[in-house]
Amino acid sequence: MSAHLPVLQVLIPLLAAPFCVVLRHRDIAWAISLITSLVCFAISLMILDQVLTQGVISYFMGGWPAPWGIEFRIDVVNAYVLVIVSAIGAIVSLYGRHSINKEIPRNQIYLFYTAYLLCLTGLLGMTATGDAFNLFVFLEISSLSTYALISLGKNRRALTASYQYLIMGTLGATFYVIGLGLLYMMTGTLNIVDLHNKLADVDGSLRTFQAALAFLTVGLSLKLALFPLHLWLPNAYTYAPSTVTAFLASTATKVAVYVMLRVFFTIFGVDLFEETGVPNIIMILAICGMFVASTVAIFQENLKRMLAYSSVAQIGYIMLGISFLSVTGVSAGIVHLFNHAIMKCALFLALGCVMYRVGSVKLSDMHGIAKKMPWTMGAFVVGGLSLIGVPLTVGFVSKWYLINAAMEADMMPVAALILLSSLLALVYVWRVIEVAYFRAPKTESNIKEAPLSMLIPLWIMAGASIYFGIDTDMTLGVAELAAEMLVGGTP
User: Fold this and answer.
1) pTM exceeding 0.85
2) Boundaries of domain holding 397
């Protein structure tokens, strides 16, 4: 059975999704979703252990060896991402029952769980596959289900947000396929490792290389919401159901970053990637995103929109680390991919608790709420401190490594910008703390703490934000192994 773990990771949620439609019962659908997510998380942990002890895992679909058949190829990089995605999926499934029952019409709840499991399938498939076109197929599975999940929001603007994301997502997928087509034209293969090997033997096609890299970079930048291609993200996160927002913010953009890593380092390789000048462009866009998105976040009244712009800024930190093209920089980017998933999941889950009790996440409706919901707002403060980068939180670890990477590259101004951008996070996090803790409630209300079934998953993520900020052996250790493999050119 252990030999089939890579395909079971994807196959189990894919087969579980139709049962939610057939049974059409919200509680049974939730149970199926929770069990499936927990099984996927357990499998991902076993896969990571296998990779760390035995090396790269190759699974050939139907027994057809690569490059003729579709390969699931799992190394340290994607084993790490599989754990992130499946862990968030398990936490969100455990958390979401009450929130989903309140925010989504009863007759659509089973459809939510169906779309959620399909989205999980797509994200895990994108991460596990070793075939570039198969990756596109899983990308479309996750994207189509994501559009449906966003559209289930109570506000009618959720439909507009979903449609906007559909347009932007379709453009991104189209750019990806065009770039992949150019690579196939040069090499005659779609297997990622085979693409890397054959690109090294292709002579005199620099313009085609550059065009392929440009299309792939733009397409994936749309998917991961790199500034200024982030316009779909604020509305999508704001108007989607709270559980959906927490799941997407913690997983979807992270998997897109992983795919970008594969394109840059596994397919093209560090040398060819550096020759094109793309890393310099990414560095500039990442720094702009860090400042512009954080500044816009300061002026938001809706806290989901505030955290959405914060996510754009945090994606800037991840891409900044990757743009250094050093082991330290890529390690910083990969570890922040993990850390941001934890902290942002905690923050959005906290807002989901507020939405459940208050019915709003507007700042004006949260005066003195910390007195009514101390555990919820305590978890929000922990996540906010991580966003700022306070010591003993995961955010500090990421920013410390980013600053080290900048100093290692002799880029002191960039290191200063990283510190300065953190002050912007302090401003918008403090706005929430000031209103929640130091303002008197506008009116007397019967608001009380969120249910225990929502608080436990919330505090698991808040606790993880502190635990992995203190004990970095696992997160940094795996991130450094992954960075050494990518930057060292190991396919």
Assistant:
1) yes
2) 277-491
